[in-house]
Fold each of these.
Amino acid sequence: MVRFHLFCGGAMVSMVAGLATSPVLAQTTEESPPSASTASPSGADAGQVGQTELGEIIVTAQKRSEKLKDVPATLLVRDSDQLVSAGVRQPTDLTVAFPGLTYTGQKAVAQPAIRGVTTAAAGQGDVENPVAVYIDGIYQPGQAMTQGYDLTNVANVEVLKGPQGTVFGRNVVAGAILVATKDPQLNTFIGDTHFTLSNYGGGTARSALNNQESFFVSIPVVDDRLAISLAGAHTGHEGWDKDLTPGSNGRYGAGQKYSLQGKILWEPTNYIKLLFNARYFNQHEEDAPTVRDGVSASLFFPDGVVGTLPWQVAHDSRSEYRIVTQSYSLRADIDTDVGTLTSLSAYQKEKSPQAADTDGGFSPLCQAAFHCIDLSFNYALPTILSQEIDFSSRKFGRFSFVAGAFAYRKDSDLAVWIFPTFFGYDIKSRSTSYAGFGEVTFDITDRLTAIAGIRYTDDSQTGQGKNSLALPFSPPESHNWTALTKRFSVKYRASDSLNLYVTRDEGYQSGLITTSAYTDPAGNRLPETPPVQPQYLKAWEIGAKYNLPGLTLNLEGFHYDWTNILVQTFNGTIVNLSNAAAAKIYGLDADGSIRLAEGLTLSGGVSWLPRANYTSFPNALVYLASGHTALATLKDLTGARLIRSPKVTLSVALDYETDLASGKLHLNANLYHSSTYSNTLGNQNDQTGYSTLGARASYSPNHGPLTYTVFGRNLTNKAYGTGIVVSSFAYEDFWAPPREVGITIDYKF
């Protein structure tokens, strides 16, 4: 009997011998299939799973076990050590480890982009990102959930670029970020602890202490049958922003983050595997913006104070956010003579209250004149239920297949209050999705393989709300959308070291009702806003993957047609969502690694996006600066560049590891560069090109369990943005952390 373990939406990643510290893992050229032990999601060491006897990387990003070099798509893999070396501490840091991924956010709202495909909408009701995030195979629907997770307990992260309309389907238009956390280990008691003390500061930022503690422990309970694991982490920092608000203590931006995760692994027989997973995350951050170009309503008044330099802020109300998520899931793998049946059941909850100072400054006179307003959001997903069943067949001669079904329900509640007007509204809605898919792989010859897949999706949403004047919105609204997405791929093994492929894929993002636009603060009924229609992306991709011992090189060209693009506008009280544009995108991705000498590895990747432009956007609402305010203006953006689409992103890492008489030494230096891009429609607020530099030096005395590390992140202290908010009240910038230097002590047992 052949035994497989399939990770739905997750990944099984092995380490390549001699290249474990390289951000781009090399592969051997041996063509033997994965063994039964390869497919186990719990390898010999937590975070290093799916390793063949020859050290090849086995992934299941396509919901089947296959070698990374055989996947006909751009798929980048980073394990926990590589993420640490790259300076990845939180989801927005993933930008520096994955070229082509631009991970920005507004407070609790994550807005990642892959190859220029992203969303302009932030935090409004049921808006979901076209870059889907899966944690241990479970889809994370909320924009806060895609930012609200801890990377300390991560085994590996995969970024799958391009639409994935067959095996993933709903809302995977740009690609997917697949996060796999550490699993319990049968028959092995292992664990690790990490203690970090560091200091932020430099330039216009204040000096701020940061501390981080984390642990992971895996305990075998019954030999070969039962094991449990527990992981936890805490991060706290003082806040590096200089607070210019009169009467303040001069410091702002403090934050705390907690996470806790437990897993139970039970294998009652050799062919049944059950994994229960419970995860909790809680983050609270003060997060005030700076003001760009003097655009702030508070500056109309003599008492107005704003921060105009990076990491300098002012506010007349608390600007902060909190993300709290809970997730409970059960995964069951049942091996049969004809394949593996996998079930993924999940229950999740999320709440993300936040307060925003829309004028980005301090001015009691402005508030008294009702010219400056503050917003209070409380977005909650009290119930998220999902069930997926997949079947991955064994190979029948030249033929194999994957088939599955997916069901999903999300209840949401968005409450918004506007001060000092005391107008508010509350919207409740329910989204459901049902889908079935199948994908067939057929070996035409020993070297030529064809893959064909199809997915049918049925989405619906209902919703209604009322405002603080007790006036209801329009009658309960309900809409339904269906989609049929297809995939076809041909791959050719030109030699033992070179694979070629061409893929035609489609992506689909569900439609959306827009109940928030039905009444204004005076209680006047507005014309009913039509629902947002689904977005579609059709892609052609052609690629080559070259692999030799000590050398890998992957190259892919792509061409996208993106239609029905969702855009968002805000007039101070009402948020409007609509389909307003179409775009064309094409470019090249390349990544690779090379062993320069014994223990010395150079690796990196580059994404080149020469075209990412709207082909039709005749009536875009943009905010143009006029004195201290911004005027909402209709503008033809046909031909303009897409937001969050830098032409070039580049990451390079140099790793050196050697054994000394007294222990092991590991040195790492990494560079990330992004060219200029815009965060807002109309390209009025560009993020100028920037580069960041990080370095680490680790030493394990006597090759023992202790490791001491000295590190630096953003060593050049480059001020670059993580997001921007533009409205008639202000141009507001949010900044990435300043330079950080510190020490870490790791203990493994």
Amino acid sequence: MPDAPAVTEGMLRVHGYRLFWKSVGAPGVRGTLVALHGGPGATHEYLLSLNDLAAHGYRIVYYDQLGSGRSDLATHVSEYSVDRDVQDLEELRTQLGLGRVHLFGSSYGGMLAIAYALAHPEGLRTLISASGLADVPLTVREMQRLKRELPSPTREILERYEARGEFQNPEYLAAVMAFYRRHVCRLDPWPPEVSYSLDHISLPKYGTMNGPNEFTIIGTMRDWDVTSRLGEIRVPTLVTTGRYDEVTPTVAESIHRGIQGSEYRLFEESSHLAFWEERTRYMNILRAFLERNG
């Protein structure tokens, strides 16, 4: 039986705040993959299926972004922004001495990864957008389409409480969960790591940047759109999505079209978390991409 990969973790002071980080596996010729969680305001735990890569010579580095998980909350919510998360990521990469990395971003983390690639291409070996987004208004339109396609009782509950602004009503929250089980993770039950991250979303950050739930993006990132700049990204890029993804294939295809030479993979049995829902296939495709471009 192979030895378990080495795990180290700690707190790093970045721009005046402590950020929690964890490293799984030893540095080696395969390189380091940095994993960016979504939310914004989730935790790194739901990405831990990526530990599968450690058995194949990769080091995986996770961290909780400012205002998330075990990292510090910001003094004021105005500090929560894509630009700040980009700056923090670059400082973390530098302080940990990671060199050029494979950058894996899930959901909002994919959005952050794209923003980082535009700002700091010198820090990257490859870029992986896992159900990420480059155009929030397009993503919102697609999510609203998915909501309209829900069974009528669920859809009507959502519309009724949204019209009242009652986003925390228990009946409304149950209907939101019905959407999530279709379009966030279709496994039953959810992996404990996924449940943990959802249960520990940072409301100050999520509410500020996103909004009350996944398909109601009314926070500060609501107008974020870098579609016109995707052609500036020149590092090898893999774009993945699920057939039933809340960040729909239409969104993923727009990223794929925008980044010249990027690869695109659609997971037919998955929604937003294909790296859990079709874990073995996902890791095989991810490994093949990394090996071709490492």
